[in-house]
Design a protein that fits this description.
The protein is α+β, with helices and mostly antiparallel strands. The chain has helices spanning 2-10, 16-49; strands at 59-69, 74-86, 89-97, 102-112, 115-122, 127-136, 139-146, 149-158, 161-168, 172-180. Helices cover 24% and strands 54% of the residues. Residues 18-49 have low confidence and may be disordered.
Length: 181
């Protein structure tokens, strides 16, 4: 015990190891605070990039459903979708295929309040046109138009589930698609 008291007296009343530990602990706290601040700034940047009416749709989705052809027959399809929202705009792609049928839909859309406008194209049939409709928060109803073609498209996003319903007035009558991420 006398040895410990003499050691503390020589070190100004404190054990030298405790002093080094105190500095190290302070450095660790500062480093931890800096890491938390950095992580928060990244999360804030990501939330700004993912804010807006299309934010709930962001990312890659996959699933399947059915396509309805002009003769009333249906085929099962497999689908992949990718949504890239940036504020009030979004780029999207939807590719669906069965053994005998395929479509590749791409679009660029913009939201102004609840009004949606944009352009679309379908690569396998080489057609393109305009989009207009309404919606927000991952739920949209739009009309895709081109010369001799009109289709109603409804998208509903809830958490990690999404439904896409297309109804058209051409040889492609429609599709019912369920996606998840």
């Amino acid at each position: 015990m006398e040895h410990l008291q003499a050691y503390r007296a020589a070190g100004g009343g404190k054990h030298r190891a405790n002093k080094q530990f105190g500095i190290s602990a302070l450095n660790r706290r500062l480093l931890m605070a800096a890491a938390v601040l950095f992580a928060a700034s990244i999360a804030n940047t990501e939330s700004k990039a993912q804010s807006g009416p299309f934010a709930p749709m962001a990312g890659s989705w996959s699933g399947g459903g059915t396509v309805i052809l002009d003769d009333g027959s249906t085929e099962r399809i497999r689908c992949r979708a990718k949504y890239a929202p940036i504020g009030p705009t979004m780029e999207l792609s939807l590719t669906c295929a069965s053994d005998a049928y395929k479509f590749n839909l791409a679009a660029n859309v913009r939201s102004e309040g609840s009004a949606i406008t944009g352009s679309w194209s379908e690569a396998s049939r080489n057609i393109s046109g305009s989009l207009q409709g309404r919606g927000g928060g991952g739920n949209f109803e739009v009309v895709a138009s081109a010369a001799g073609f009109n289709a109603n498209i409804a998208l509903k996003t809830t958490g990690n589930k999404q439904t896409v319903t297309l109804r058209a007035d051409s040889q492609f009558r429609g599709a019912n698609i369920s996606l998840s991420r």
